[in-house]
Design a protein that fits this description.
Blueprint: H1 8-20, H2 37-42, H3 45-53, H4 57-66, E1 110-116, H5 137-146, E2 150-156, H6 161-168, E3 173-176, H7 182-185, H8 190-202, E4 206-208
Parallel strand pairs: 1-2, 1-3, 3-4
Length: 212
Amino acid sequence: FAAAKQPAPLARSSRALAAAAPPSTMGSGASAESVPAEALAKASPEELQKAFAELPAETKDKVKQALGGGGGGGGEAAPAASGPVDVSALTLVAKDNKGLLAQPAEPKYKGALCQIYVRSQPYGGSDKSSNGHRYDSIPFANGMINSGMSCQLIHYTHEEHDMFFEVCKGFDFIIVRCNPGQIKADGGDQGKFDNGMREIRKAGIQVWPSPD
């Protein structure tokens, strides 16, 4: 039987991952369309992130389900933070979004509320509810939604720094709700995060509070 043709984005991602591995990892019968486990193992985090970002949304969901659906501490994963901006390239951290209102179909402005989940601390930090969100995150977001703006809940993870700020470029404003010391406690660099937000501001996107 003829091999099924992969969707173009998936095929590009497969070729990118296969190309990331040295020739020795490709067997004599392998092709650029197949992605051996060895190729995945040898690809850099940046190459994996780029390949993942090119996948269709349905395939991204399958990958996340296979990996356990994010780091919010177990249980059923929350559905992706739906809204006008595609955030599916980011790790889904929260266990659920209970209480969050539906995002407006045509928001006046597109916003995000940024949080940090400290993986070494119970519930992700003393400011968190058991679902991985800050206690005040959903009320904050709902206030924006009730005013006709969208407000998607996202989490910063230092491993996805570049991808996170690439996604942030799709918003009109970012509300930062990361307690002092939490980014460092999770293994990240506060200065690097602040510099990323400064670049977002230079792009004309509002950031509250400002790092300066």
